[in-house]
Structures are given as C-alpha cells and as structure tokens.
Amino acid sequence: MARQFTFSQRFQKNFMALTTQEKKQLKNKLKLLAKNPIHPSLRTKRIQGTDGLYESSINMDIRVIWNFEDNATIILADVGHHDILKQF
After folding, report:
1. Which of 80, 60, 72, 79 is nearest to 7 (CA)?
2. What pTM, to 2 d.p., does this model score?
3. Per-residue pLDDT tens over the stretch 49-82
4. Which fold has domain 4-87?
5. Hey, which residues does 81 pair with through a beta bridge?
6. What is the distance between the alpha carbons of residues 20 and 15, in angstroms, rounded to a whole number?
7. Which residues does 53 contact at the CB level (< 8 Å), separation at least 6?
8. Which residues pair with 79 in a beta bridge?
9. Would you list the domain boundaries of the chain?
10. Collapsing DSSP states into helix, strand and coil, what is residue 34?
11. In what order do the strands lie in the sheet with 62-70?
C-alpha cells in the first residue's frame, strides 16, 4: 500500500529553496517513503526527544522530517540541510 502525503507550509516553503537536482532526488525518495518508510536507502530513524517524528535521508546532506497522520497518510513537516534537525 502506497501512502499519501500532506505537506506542511514549512515543507512547501523549504522545498522551493532546494536546487533542481535536490528536488529530483527528493521526489525519488518520496516514492520509496510512500511504499516503505523503513527502506534501507532512506536511513529512516525516529528523532530523539520527539513524539513520533522521523527523519529520512534524501542525500548525504538533505533530510526530510515527517510523521504518520494515520495508516494511509504521512505528513511531510520539513525538508532541508542536515541542520534542520536542530529545530526538533
């Protein structure tokens, strides 16, 4: 079952700041995330000290922050360089 995504305003804003190459990488990784949130190439892990927030790697520098809304939906909370994790 492929999950659906909802996008926070913060995610949408930071998505626009990505380069064309980073956007392409993100779209490819989101296809994996929709099918299997724990796919090995995503290197998904729960963000310590949060209640159900996860980070997944897009490339060696870009991370996407997300959580489950329900069984069928993932909320994409933020995307950006590795230092975005400091906000959470």
Report:
1. 79
2. 0.92
3. 998 999 999 999 999 999 999 999 999 999 998 7
4. YaeB-like fold (3.30.2310)
5. 62
6. 10
7. 46, 47, 65, 66, 67, 77, 88
8. 64
9. 4-87
10. helix
11. 4-7, 73-81, 62-70, 54-57, 45-46
